[in-house]
Amino acid sequence: CKLMLYRGLNYENITNAALDGASVINCSWGSAGSYNSYNQTLINAASNEGAIIVAAAGNTNGSNVTSYYYPASYDNVISVMAVDSDKRYACINCSNDPSPSASKIFIQNDK
Questions:
Q1: Tens-digit pLDDT profile for residues 2-42
Q2: What residue spans of the chain are helical by DSSP H?
Q3: Rounded to whole angstroms, how far apart are CA atoms 85 and 33?
Q4: Helix, strand, coil % (nearest 5) of the chain?
């Protein structure tokens, strides 16, 4: 196991990490926005190299956010977010449900 650090929060670095041999790529960054086919192509390239891509499904404190959050909403990305003890979106992640095509993992924190 080795840790690879890349400077800059961008989609090219996702592909670069996969080409450099990363098996899991964690994207704790992202933003609300709209679908971009070029970015999806870069995600697909990383996935085709065998990388598992994990991304935050929302880092905002707002409620009722209706736009998708990227890169979490792209195909071939596992979207993660926090839930409270009642399995509701945690306050720090009050954004929308990720894309229906995205995998979802809900991690419960009962602290």
A1: 778 887 778 999 999 999 999 999 998 888 888 999 999 99
A2: 11-19, 37-48
A3: 29
A4: 20, 25, 55
Amino acid at 68: Y
The rounded distance, in Å, linking the Cα atoms of 55 and 71 is: 6
The arithmetic mean of pLDDT across residues 45-53, rounded, is: 96
Read off the pLDDT of each residue in 67-72 and give the average, rounded to a whole number: 87
Nearby residues of 12 by Cβ (< 8 Å), 6 or more positions away: 42
pTM beyond 0.90: the answer is no
Question: At 71, phi and psi to the nearest 5?
Answer: -85, 0
Contacts of 73 (CB under 8 A, 6+ apart): 35, 57, 79, 98, 99, 102
What pLDDT is attached to residue 94? 46
52 forms beta bridges with 24
pLDDT of 49 over the 50 cut: yes
